[in-house]
Amino acid sequence: MKLSAWVLMVLLLGFGLHAEELAVLEPAVVTMDSPAAEVATLPGEEAKLKDGYALLDSLLTLFENLSVEKKVPEGEQKVPLSGLALVDSRLSQLAKDAKFAFEAGVIDKIFYNRYERMLTIFKLVTMPIIRNEMLKNLFMRAFEEFVWDTTYETWRWEDKDSIAKMAAAMEEEFVQMKIYLDTRQKREELKKKIGKRILPPPPPPPSAKKAPEAKKLE
Predict the structure, then answer these.
(1) What beta strand segments (E) does the chain contain?
(2) Residue 41 pLDDT > 70, yes or no?
(3) Is the pLDDT confidence value at 31 over 50?
(4) What Rg value do the Cα atoms of the chain yield, rounded?
(5) CA distance 167 to 190
(6) Which residues, at least 6 apart from 196, have a Cβ–Cβ distance to it below 8 Å?
(7) Cα separations in angstroms, 173 against 13, 48, 100, 122
(8) Exposed, middle or buried, 69 (CB in 10 Å: 0-12/13-18/19+)?
(9) Are 10 and 70 in contact (CB under 8 A)?
């Protein structure tokens, strides 16, 4: 699946829940269409040691092999996309995997925190909110800050292009994190080459400032 199409699908699924303003996201009875398929992870597993590339690739399989079997009795409100309960479990598992990789030194602090933020955005996108609920402002603020920090675009829920802007931000962050991994060696070489030349010269020590005054007194 192409990255842009994947991001758009995530947002349409998630923001569709927000538009419905559901009070509860009920877990469905979810089965895997292909039990042997490689998906992000299965719920309840122990943390796995993954490198940065594997962690990023796992994001692309969050919504794979979902099939909803739950039947809603007649007269009850239908809860759409309840298969996202499994996605939530996968997100939690990826958070464990990322922390394990960071503690093992497989990924650095920069990648870990950016990845953790991506997981948070996924969590918020796929979580329904209620009109006038206190958490709604926190959700919107997190979305606004993420889009601004990533693409320097102003994001508002009520804008017609809000989904497009969020999709662009998620896609950009994913690509930038991939490039961050690809250029690890090159970045280290550049840091050594630049050294301290990018910094202004340090101020002279206090003794050097007093020296001319001492000469005048003599």
Answers:
(1) 30-31, 67-68
(2) no
(3) no
(4) 24
(5) 32
(6) none
(7) 20, 23, 22, 13
(8) exposed
(9) no
18 vs 91: CA distance, rounded Å: 19
Q: Which residues of 148-183 are buried (b: 16+ CB within 10 A; e: fewer)?
A: eebbebebeeeeeebbebbbbbbbebbeebeebeee
Which residues does 14 contact at the CB level (< 8 Å), separation at least 6?
A: 84, 122, 125, 126, 127
Label residues 126-142 b or e (16+ Cβ within 10 Å = b): bbbbeeeeeeeeebbeb
A 10 A CB-CB count for 215 gives: 8
Reported confidence tier of residue 204, pLDDT bands at 50, 70, 90: confident
For residues 177, 183, 187 and 190, what is the CA-based torsion angle, rounded to 10 degrees? -140
* Distance in angstroms (rounded) separating the CA atoms of residues 11 and 5: 10
CA distances (Å), origin 134, targets 20, 26, 34, 144, 162: 17, 21, 40, 16, 21
**Cβ contacts of 58 within 8 Å, gap of 6 or more:** 40, 41, 50, 90, 94, 97
Does the global pTM surpass 0.85? Answer: no
pLDDT one-digit tens code per residue, 57-94: 999 888 776 655 455 566 555 544 456 778 888 899 99
pLDDT at 119 over 70: yes
3-state secondary structure of 7: helix
| Residue ranges covered by each domain of the chain | 3-217
